[in-house]
Task: structure prediction
Amino acid sequence: MFKAIQCLLLAGVVSIPAAMAQTPDAPVQPKTENGLRYLCGGVGLDESDYMKSQARSHGLLMTFATTDGSYLANVHVDIADKRGKPLLSVDCDAPMLLVDLPRGDRYRILAQTGGASLSRSASVKSGGGNRAVFVWPSQGGQSEKPTRAEKLGQSDADARSSAHEEPRLRTQSEMGK
Result:
């Protein structure tokens, strides 16, 4: 009887890490490439809130948007270490990408969408909260960013009442691919 209880306890301990790796209730499921775990999500309010809540427990949160405030999906991301060694190459079909990169190092990130590329370097420090934001020009290619009210064609008072709206997700084709 004691031996059977030990086996059941051991089985439970072994299955706990597997359960923690993927939670069926989570709106975004992790994937792994080259030993790096990542999550691509942020479509809709539930996923966006989930991705932001998970940022502290991951090395780096990347956000993709346009100058008009719209989130952007379908972004190809290449991450290399400071010496240029490729670590991750992924197509993200959502506006946020969380990657578990080793802390204490500096990384080079190249993000591409709609024929346009942006690069950033990022350090990953312990404690989480490390972010890289990629903002592409909106389709109109405006050089100055309009106010939220101008974008919505509203007065400033109307804009304040809708300030908590979720930005609209745009695809590569909408950006004039």
